Amino acid sequence: MSRLSQDELRALGLGAALVVLAALLPLLDQGFYLSMGVNIMLYAALCTAWTLFSGPTHYISLATAAFYGLGTYSVGLGIDILPYPILLGIAALVGAALAGLVGAATLRISGVYFVIFTFGLAELVRQLVTWTQTKFATAIGLYVFTDFTEVHIYLMLLALTALVFLTGFLINRSRLGFAMRIIGNDETVARHAGIDTARSKIVLFMVSGAFIAIAGAITAPRYTYIEPPSAFNPMISFLVVIMALLGGTKRLWGPLVGVIPFTIVMDIISARFPNHTSIVVGLAFFAIVYLLPDGVTGRLEQLRAWLRTRRAAGHVAAVEKQA
Amino acid sequence: MSTAALSVSNACKQFGGLVAVNDVSFEVGEGELFGLIGPNGSGKTTMLNLISGALQPTGGEIRLSGERISGLAAHHIARKGVARTFQLVRVLPSLDAEENVMTGAVFGHRRLWGEEARQLARALLDRVGLGGRAHMPVAAMTYIDQKRVELARALASDPRVLLLDEWLAGLNPSELQTGIGLIEDVGREGRTIIMVEHVMDAIRSLCDRCVVMNSGRKIAEGGVSEVLADPDVVRAYLGDDDA
User: Fold this and answer.
1) What pLDDT digit, counting tens, does each position of A153-171 carry?
2) What is the CATH number of domain A6-292?
């Protein structure tokens, strides 16, 4: 576990190659495809960060918009005062802090309440920000003027996505990752084996929240004008869940399989039927839950597991015959 | 008093109006193989759950080598050196046998990591008779093999006190002999074991001493043969007429 296995090295190499390949996109096109690339990269980062926590724990978080919005606001509020990299750091801290608070308050309770709580939380944060701005500032929104172009944003989101993957990879190899796999199997066994299940979940939620906030901070310059309805848009939370579920959350790369086709299809739909986007999102959600409960990668895993048990059953039969 | 590996004094557990464990006290010496017996619903498993921290006692005190553990969360108790198996076997289905056992080594009393934990897991799998099946999916294993995995997982944490909750239940006669042999073997290395069990043969051949519970109360304690001859114990198991 301390040394890298052959498989892990191959995965790292493949990941690095994909990052390099993705980094070449701005050289090919700086218009429509780059813009779609930004969207894909944004949701790749968001969904993977979401899966970091929700994959192993099976807790469905609808607080993505809250973390994302706090990230954009960290930049919106500080862009005239502090250098941009520091703002990214602040966004991460704010995201982690909020996740820590929410986690400590809710992760001891069961899944359904967690879903409702996180959704309520995102709305509460949005209302608080709106209220604060109307009370103490003159405008509801904030201007973010930077020199960043789509290319910069794209490359930063790519770097973030790579970082999320690397973090997930390192967590999987750590005690925390092992603990999460055990918790996902049987929380009672986990507790009796000596795992502080609540703490493990909170730490992971904080990591996830920090990354989502950074994604918000990176995209902030793209909006130019930030206001609560766009920064804390609940649609972000829902889209992240749908795309991650479509891809499958059992593997870290699962969401990616969902993000790419979904973002492209969403783009076509919102261009052709701008008034019916919500309906399509709703229908997509139904279709995924009913037809692909474990996502595309889940189906692949099922197939592999089926092949493996058949082989194992064959092995047992062989051993028994010998005995 | 503090020399006992585990001491339970006046433990109580109340579920609303139901008193599942009522003022139970006993002490288990270092290296002792201790039986906890009684008819169905007498509170044995609840007693075990109080020790392992799955449930919090509503009264009384439990001490591990003199250190109070009652009131602590299950994971703290596990780290202090209490490991257990479950009445209905609980393996981790998506992990292989080796990883199942490593769970105990990595997070329990010893807290090993990496190759050390893996080697310990291998050694323990060999020990419980699962050598060569380290990478077999546990879901494809037979019941007794899953129980072996669970025992190895508990042993992997190098526990100061090992709790076995009907570890022998559900085994066929030949498996039972194997199982008894395995527990005997673990006990011989000087490990303190508390076993809840229905299989009287196992209690007779394995345990040094035992406690008998009935309706949440301790009704007898002492050497196994004398306790099983106690009229109160016979009455608890067989009813008034046979006493």
Assistant:
1) 999 999 999 999 999 999 9
2) 1.10.3470
The tokens for B114 are 């990496």
Among B158, B181, B201, where does a domain finish? B158
**B104 reaches A (C-beta below 8 A):** yes
> Which chain A positions have a beta carbon within 8 Å of B79's beta carbon?
194
From chain B, pick out residues whose CB is under 8 angstroms from the CB of A308.
Answer: 137
Residues B5 and B119 in one domain: no
User: Which band of pLDDT confidence, cut at 50, 70 and 90, is reported for residue B242?
Assistant: low
pLDDT per position as a tens digit, B101-155: 999 999 988 888 888 999 999 999 999 989 888 898 898 899 999 999 999 999 9
The CATH number linked to B18 is 3.40.50.300
Question: How far does the CA of residue B115 sit from the closest CA of chain A (Å)?
Answer: 7
| Chain pair A-B, CB pairs under 8 angstroms | 86
Range of the domain at B74: 1-81+160-243
Q: What is the ipTM of this complex?
A: 0.90
List CB contacts of A34: < 8 A, sequence separation 6 or more. A25, A26, A150, A151, A154
Whether B75 sits inside 8 A of A194 (CB atoms) is yes
Nearest CA in chain B to A183: B92
Q: Where are the alpha helices (DSSP H) in chain A?
A: 6-23, 25-28, 32-57, 64-78, 84-106, 111-136, 150-172, 175-185, 187-193, 197-223, 228-231, 234-247, 254-272, 277-291, 295-322
Please state the pTM of the whole predicted model.
Answer: 0.86
Task: Kindly list the residues of chain A whose beta carbon comes within 8 Å of any beta carbon in chain B.
Answer: 1-2, 175, 178-179, 181-182, 184-186, 188-197, 308-309, 312-313, 315-316
